[in-house]
Amino acid sequence: MPKVLISDKMDPKAAEIFRSRGVEVDEITGKTPEELKAIIGNYDGLAIRSSTKVTQEILDAATNLKVVGRAGIGVDNVDIPAASSRGVVVMNTPFGNSITTAEHAIALMFALARQLPEADASTQQGKWEKNRFMGVELTAKTLGLIGAGNIGSIVAERALGLRMKVVAYDPFLTEERAIEMGVEKVDLDTLLARADFITLHTPLTDQTRNILSKENLAKTKKGVRIINCARGGLVDEAALKEGLDSGHIAGAALDVFVTEPAKESPLFGTPNFISTPHLGASTTEAQVNVAIQVAEQMSDFLLSGGVTNALNMPSLSAEEAPRLKPYMALAEKLGSLVGQLAHGALQGVSIEAEGDAAALNQKPITGAVLAGLMRAYTDTVNMVNAPFLAKERGLDVREVRHDREGDYHTLLRVTVRTRDGERSVAGTLFGDNKPRLVELFGIQVEADLAGHMLYVVNADQPGFIGRLGSLLGEKGVNIGTFHLGRREAGGEAILLLSVDGEMDKAFLDTVRALPGVKTAMALEF
Ligand SMILES: NC(=O)c1ccc[n+]([C@@H]2O[C@H](COP(=O)([O-])OP(=O)(O)OC[C@H]3O[C@@H](n4cnc5c(N)ncnc54)[C@H](O)[C@@H]3O)[C@@H](O)[C@H]2O)c1
Ligand SMILES: O=C(O)[C@H](O)COP(=O)(O)O
After folding, report:
1. For residue 380, what pLDDT is reported?
2. Is the CB of 207 under 6 A from ligand 1?
3. What is the Cα–Cα distance from 281 to 73, expressed in whole angstroms?
């Protein structure tokens, strides 16, 4: 009988379902990482919320682990690459707590508008300070939504019901979807300049970290009120404190903090600052939803191999799996490459299969392309929900099969359409199972897309590769593989290098400063 550990506080429904399905379950919460390491080897499944950190170290000790189930949305507490490399499936419950979290954001918006916590404390101290607490109305105010995914769209719907005007910044939001949601799609600077209230609903990624930085907070309207129910790290907490102290920011409400549990913070005690201890998902209804979903999903997987809402595995029948697996790895890499390189809101994507690939079931391949593509924007996407999310967001997805065979016996081509035009990448399988990029934006380049990669577009000039190599050497960046392609002699050239470590902004800026460099970006696979 498979055995599951529930390591974070979860609704009792989860344990009930595991037991009724024939899965043995232990509920042991509040363990330190060391204590968890000592017992994790006994379990086939681990059911968590946000407290348990599923690190590489824990996974190393989890010799029997097959599945991690997150009763909730964010999986930033799980090392997904480490889990994938150990064959551990990671699942979440992407919709079970969205309404509840959106309601918390709205509750905090009201609390800020009317200074409810301070008014409550003062009244209960017998002060009756009727003149101290002058609030603002929400009606006709502008709400700036940063991130218009599941939770963001529910917040927008509620805010429109409150007769607010909603402006949204989300690179993934299409004009059509914005119109459907009744919001105005704007760029970040416009949102900062126009919003009376700003609410954040993005995952924490390299692009969103510090999205409300000191610099961006300075661009906000005087008197702005800020709400963060998404992830700590989206707002610069020190700059927020300065803005509140100076009076530029009229109020701020944080449910999430850079360091959690947040036992101390310079923000604590600041007038017009409200905080809650990561309560976004904490309602009876949401906790029952996510507990039931995670227990059902994990039981299905452990008992029959059924896969739902996995972040690192497609849903597949046992017969198709071996043949499709390398194609899906190729598809996800091509999607991820084009997602990381495409600029501007995506409008459409076409997935073409040629040669042997044309004979395969296209759905898992499409799912893998879309999951790779959208992972640049959301960490809740997986191969199963990617096509649904793409449809919901108005992305035009086309699948094309060509019977013809070109230079390769099998080929996948992914073309994305943005407002700036079309961009296309193509790849094949070497030896029927090794994914290889063979074309990038019309340039022939052969590369294995893996790990940390440096992407450089430069003018094809003698001496350039030497200069780049010397710079990498000086900076102590070790090159793993080196791939080169060019449009024509003396024209535009592309370099793709796999390197042994992460590259920071300062390093990329030095590459960008080399003569002839047009673009330099860090890519992750
Ligand atoms: N406080 C809580 O208890 C609580 C509860 C649930 C979810 N969350 C968090 O809320 C966040 C949103 O959840 P969701 O379900 O709506 O996720 P989602 O994936 O449906 O939506 C995220 C949105 O952010 C957008 N986005 C990505 N990068 C962006 C960028 N650079 N700028 C602007 N927008 C960008 C994406 O395109 C997407 O539309 C997640 O981080 C989740 O972990 C917190
Ligand atoms: O991402 C989520 O689902 C929320 O952050 C909820 O986290 P919790 O389950 O720890 O309340």
Report:
1. 63
2. yes
3. 9
User: Which range in 186-200, 449-463, 487-501 is most confidently predicted, on average pLDDT?
Assistant: 186-200
**Contact at 8 Å (CB) between 452 and 522?**
yes
Does the active-site annotation cover 278? Answer: yes
E strands within 307-345?
none
pTM listed for this prediction = 0.74
| Burial of 363 per CB tally in 10 Å (0-12, 13-18, 19+) | middle
Decide if pLDDT at 236 tops 90: yes
Q: Give the nearest ligand 2 atom to 75 CA.
A: 1
* Probe residue for ligand 1, chosen from 8, 48, 70, 73 as the CB with the greatest number of ligand atoms within 8 Å: 73
Work out the percent of the chain whose per-residue pLDDT is above 70. Answer: 97
Ligand nearest to the CA of residue 98, numbered in listed order: 1
Query: Which ligand 2 atom is the nearest neighbour of the CA of 282?
Result: 11
Active site residue 231: yes
pLDDT at 344 over 80: no
Dihedral (C-alpha) 391, 207, 525, 326: value to the nearest 10 degrees?
A: 0
Q: Which amino acid is at 280?
A: G
Q: Which of 49, 158, 225, 231 is catalytic?
A: 231
pLDDT averaged over the chain?
Answer: 93
From the candidate CATH numbers 3.40.50.2300, 3.30.420.10, 3.10.20.30, 3.30.1330.90, the one assigned to the domain spanning 316-448: 3.30.1330.90
* CB 450 within 8 Å of CB 525: yes
3-96+285-304 and 316-448: same fold? no
Q: At the topology level of CATH, where does 116-271 sit?
A: Rossmann fold (3.40.50)
CB atoms within 10 A of CB 1: 8
Instruction: Please name which ligand lies nearest the alpha carbon of 382.
Output: 1
User: Per the structure block, which two tokens stand in for 492?
Assistant: 């535009």
Of the listed ranges 55-69, 254-268, 383-397, 509-523, the least confidently predicted one is 383-397
CA distance 382 to 386: 6
Report the phi/psi class of residue 432: left, alpha or beta, with left for phi > 0 and alpha for psi in -120 to 50: left
Q: List, as one string, the DSSP characters of 57-79.
A: HHHHH-TT--EEEESSS--TTB-
CB under 8 Å to 307, separation ≥6 — which residues? 89, 91, 300, 301, 313, 314, 315, 316, 384
Q: How much is the pLDDT for 311?
A: 87
Tell me, in angstroms, the distance from the centre of ligand 1 to residue 201's CA: 4
Answer with the residue of higher pLDDT: 388 or 418.
Answer: 418
Known catalytic residue: 260? yes
DSSP assignment of 42-53: T-SEEEE-SSS-
Q: Minimum-distance ligand to the CA of 169?
A: 1
Q: Which two tokens stand for residue 85?
A: 């490399």
ipTM above 0.85, yes or no: yes
Q: Which fold does the domain 3-96+285-304 belong to in CATH? A: Rossmann fold (3.40.50)
Angle at 278 (CA atoms; ends 273, 281), nearest 5 degrees: 125
Q: What is the pLDDT of residues 294-342, one digit of tens each?
A: 999 999 889 877 778 888 776 665 566 678 889 999 999 999 999 999 8
